[in-house]
Design a protein that fits this description.
The complex is a heterodimer of chains A (542) and B (168). Chain A is an alpha/beta fold and 542 residues long. In chain A, 39% of the residues lie in helices and 16% in strands. Chain A is globular, with a radius of gyration of 24 Å. Chain B is 50% helix and 12% strand. Chain B has seven helices and five strands. In chain B, α1 packs antiparallel against α2 (24-35), α1 (3-17) packs across α3 and α3 (40-50) packs across α4. The interface between A and B is large, with 66 and 46 residues. Bound molecules: flavin mononucleotide and iron/sulfur cluster.
């Protein structure tokens, strides 16, 4: 019996993987082939999706992108035996994209059946949890600190310090919360991991529970990810049945209960304190810090809040030791980063490798440049609150500090590529518009500043005293940076200022964007004078 | 659904969830899934069951975009307008959809068949422009594919409306 893999990942199904799977089932039945069809996670080479893999003696042979219509001919040509065909890619593991990665966090994603207990254990699953359970909580945290792991959710905070704070805070009740809100455009690795290797996240949260003394956990998943929600919930049910969750985990006496909570369409709920409010069933209003969640978190109890990928990096650290993990990377950026190549890119997807690879190697090398075939103009790195990096700076190494020195932000490693048809003034305007739309409304610099920002940019682009208004925009950015309670208002100036700094002509009409592409709508403002950057506070819509 | 039925539904949903920590959002999700919206009647009922103020419940309902205050159409079309999708022409798709349906984003067509919404990121950023139709994500959406996707969604919608199956 031949094993065939067709991904169930929602990016793969967004371009027809379900239809391809159905076609393969039907055609195999008709032609009398006995097959086992596995719906795996995605390998993260989205330009090849739907990517069909066939297990052979040589290894897994790939075909892609496959359409349902092409299936009969493929099967005719011998796909089920791994035969050659124009869509045949050869051995998947030997494709440069796969071969050149160091997949620590994504080791199993795309390889296994996400909900198969056997696949999980056969491919290294539970090794980290077993190792952790043999250690005292403080020893687990030492391994974590030795690994140099920093938060993958954007801020890069050392995870060992966070966990130690929770461990050291006395309480009758502690929580572990996974931030799976992944609202940033250009990021999808959290989703891929939850859909492709959900047990890994469960294992990591059990390790965290042991390390800090927590008994309850929540995974907060955005509602835009229904497939991730379903897969995680199914995996949690299986994990309970296996004794990987519950009152006596792996017969160690560890008790940890875990459940999924679903967001409700609010970007700000990715900010950790807003997420905690939302988990408590409230409006997602950001809390002032201090107190920090590690001391005063969910329902006022000490709480670990970590991103999906931060947590998913933990099992391998415990299984192989913190030192082994720290051997990857550069300077203070240790281990691997799951880079996400998105937007106008020929080869988009997930590329996990040690920190230090340059932006150019990622975008122009592995990414193959733009999808449109036009020159790359800029990339926004680190999500909507990250800076636009012009193509001229693509020699930047992917290191938190190197990016910071270049007034950019590595963040979670999401990279959104734009070609030369992009209007950067429109993108700057969108950054302000997005902030106005998604602000929680708690503080004025963000809530009102963002609305003013849109207006000022409209004045600049419509030629109204551009120099004066660019000054106003810079002042406004200053106020937002200095005066906002959280990074929503505090970092929105990043994309705005970087666009202004590197692409000033787009604002003042000197750059005529090439005209084949996208034209982000830019409506003009109402033109009332700038009487103090934040004048005229108004009703918040949040 | 009559007011009595709604009250019964609210009571049973709240009973189901009462033991959970901070259950309001979970309850609202359940109700929004089953009713399709949360109006002032539902707000009042939930507040009563949980013994909290109406303003508290209202505040939560209005904070989150998922909770609709009026019934949505059979087909919910969400188009991504975030950066990665803009980079590959999302605005053109939005423009096209607005023209075809004769509504702006956030509105429902006059015949009540399609609700058009904008969304910021569906996590399909390497295969944009992305759209979500009744919870299923689609990639590489252009003007033509949009028409195909909606046609098949409407067929499914009609089929499920005529078969007396479980409410999903
Ligand atoms: C506006 C805003 C949105 C955020 N969204 C997310 C998110 O979607 N996922 C995430 O993990 N962190 C997000 N963060 C960062 C979190 O506040 C927090 O730093 C992170 O969850 C901590 O986990 P880590 O240390 O493992 O990265 C966001 C922050 C801000 C200010
Ligand atoms: S900066 Fe914006 S999102 Fe953050 S607390 Fe202030 S108003 Fe809320």
């Amino acid at each position: 019996m031949t094993t065939i893999y067709v991904p169930r990942d929602s990016s793969a199904t967004s371009v027809g993987a379900d239809e391809v799977a159905a076609a393969i089932r039907g055609a195999a039945r008709e032609s009398g082939h006995d097959i086992r069809l596995v719906r795996n996670g995605s390998r993260g080479m989205f330009w090849l999706e739907p990517l069909v893999e066939v297990a052979t003696d040589r290894g897994r042979v790939g075909y892609g992108p496959v359409t349902a219509d092409a299936v009969p001919a493929l099967i005719e040509a011998g796909m089920l035996d791994g035969a050659d065909h124009e869509l045949c890619l050869g051995l998947v593991e030997e494709l440069p994209w796969m071969r050149d990665q160091q997949r620590l966090c994504f080791a199993r994603v795309g390889l296994t059946d996400p909900l198969s207990v056997d696949d999980y254990v056969a491919n290294g699953g539970l090794a980290g949890l077993r190792a952790a359970l043999d250690l005292a909580p403080a020893e687990v945290i030492t391994e974590l600190s030795d690994s140099g792991l920093r938060g993958r959710g954007g801020a890069g905070f050392p995870s060992g310090i966070k966990w130690k704070t929770v461990l050291d805070t006395e309480s009758d009740l502690k929580f572990v919360c996974c931030n799976a809100d992944e609202g940033d455009s250009g990021t999808f690795a959290d989703r891929m991991l939850m859909e492709g290797d959900p047990f890994c996240l469960i294992e990591s949260m059990a390790i965290a529970a042991h390390a800090v003394g927590a008994t309850e956990g929540y995974i907060y998943i955005r509602s835009e990810y229904p497939d991730a929600v379903n897969t995680m919930r199914a995996a949690i049910d299986i994990a309970y049945a296996q004794g990987w969750l519950g009152s006596d985990i792996l017969d160690s006496g560890l008790r940890f209960d875990l459940s999924v909570r679903v967001g409700a369409g609010a970007y700000i709920c990715g900010e950790e304190t807003s997420m905690l409010e939302s988990l408590e069933g409230k409006r997602g209003m950001v809390r002032p810090k201090p107190p920090i969640p590690a001391i005063n978190g969910l329902f006022g109890k000490p709480t670990v809040v970590n991103n999906v990928l931060t947590l998913a990096s933990v099992p391998t650290i415990l299984a192989n030791g913190g030192g082994a993990y720290a051997e990857h990377g550069m300077e203070r950026s240790r281990g691997t980063q799951v880079f996400q190549l998105a937007g106008n890119i020929k080869h988009g997807g997930v590329f996990e490798t040690a920190f230090g690879i340059t932006l150019g190697e990622l975008v122009n090398g592995y990414g193959g440049g733009t999808l449109s075939g036009r020159p790359v103009r800029a990339a926004q790195v680190g999500g909507p609150l990250g800076s636009y990096v012009p193509a001229a700076q693509f020699d930047l190494p992917t290191d938190y500090e190197a990016f910071a020195a270049a007034e950019a932000m590595l963040g979670h490693g999401g990279v959104v590529v734009f070609d030369d048809t992009v209007d950067m003034a429109a993108m700057a305007r969108f950054a302000m518009e997005f902030c106005a739309e998604e602000s929680c409304g708690k503080c004025t610099p963000c809530r009102v500043g963002a609305v003013r920002g849109v207006e000022v940019i409209d004045r600049i682009t419509s030629g109204e005293e551009p120099e004066t208004n660019i000054g106003v925009l810079n002042d406004l950015c200053e106020v937002m940076t200095e005066g906002s309670l959280c990074a929503m208002g505090g970092l929105t100036p990043n994309p705005v200022r970087s666009a202004l700094q590197h692409f000033a002509d787009d604002f003042t009409g000197g750059h005529a964007p090439a005209t084949t592409g996208d034209d982000p709508t830019t409506t003009s403002g109402n033109g009332s004078g700038p009487s103090g950057v934040l004048a005229g506070d108004e009703e918040s819509k949040a | 659904m009559s007011r009595v039925d709604v009250a019964e539904l609210v009571r049973s949903v709240v009973e189901n969830r009462r033991h959970e920590r901070g259950p309001l959002l979970v309850i609202l999700h359940d109700l929004n899934d089953q009713l399709g919206y949360i109006d002032s009647t539902v707000v009042e009922l939930v507040a009563g069951e949980l013994n909290v103020s109406r303003a508290d419940v209202h505040g939560v309902v209005t904070f989150y975009t998922d909770f609709r205050t009026e019934p949505a159409a059979g087909v919910s079309l969400k188009l991504c307008r975030a950066e990665a999708c803009k980079a590959v022409g999302a605005e053109r798709v939005v423009e096209h959809a607005q023209q075809v349906f004769g509504v702006r984003v956030g509105e429902t067509t006059p015949d009540g068949s399609v609700t058009l919404d904008q969304v910021f990121c569906l996590g399909n950023c390497a295969l944009g422009p992305a759209a979500q139709v009744n919870g299923k994500t689609h990639g590489r959406v252009d003007e033509n594919r949009l028409v195909e996707i909606l046609a098949s969604a409407e067929t499914t919608e009609r089929a499920s409306a005529t078969s007396p199956g479980e409410p999903s």
